[in-house]
Amino acid sequence: MDGDATAGTAARLVGREIAVLVESDYYEPEIAYYRWRFAEEGARVRLVSRLWGRESLTFLGHEHRAPLEVHEDLADLTDDALDRLAAVIVPAGMVADRLRYTEDVDSLPPATEVMLRAFDRPALLKGVICHGMWLMAPIPHVVRGRRAVVHNNLLGDLRNMGGRYVDRDVVVDGDLVTGRTGDHCHLFARRIVDLLAGGTGSTNQEGT
User: Fold this and answer.
1) Which CATH architecture has domain 17-197?
2) Where are the domains of the chain?
3) E strands of 121-173, at which residues?
């Protein structure tokens, strides 16, 4: 990114941190856009995944098999770490499906457990786009009764979780922002930026 990209404009998220959960089969244009767009506003973008005891892992994208190296583990998202975040995003692609794996069927997947604690924090913005809603399937109560949009393939999942489907590209319900598909990541990111900056995106609006 050009270091002068924000010249003449005020970066609105300076000092804020946004965590983006990632795994293999991520949608490359979406993750690339978040890294550029949020950084343009001055935010620090943190890529987080389950590292399985390793210092880092390299994940491959869905479309072009592009490599993405990740150094932050889900275990790093302690309660204190979550309190320091401005937003946490569950992206498109197969990220949520991979992260919802648990080797212990009596325990929540680590990524779902992180989102459960995230939903306990109204001040922390939750962004879920496209197939990302899969990650909340083990904790349907966090979505029950809330307005949301998902990929058409997940309509049954959302309704079985008790969510209220809204046919818009981006839907805001309080501290939950949802997007239709990864191709709508620009609209999704814009709404998140506006909400965090206290701009035009109202937490009471249904969508775009």
Assistant:
1) 3-Layer(aba) Sandwich (3.40)
2) 17-197
3) 125-129, 147-148, 164-165, 170-173
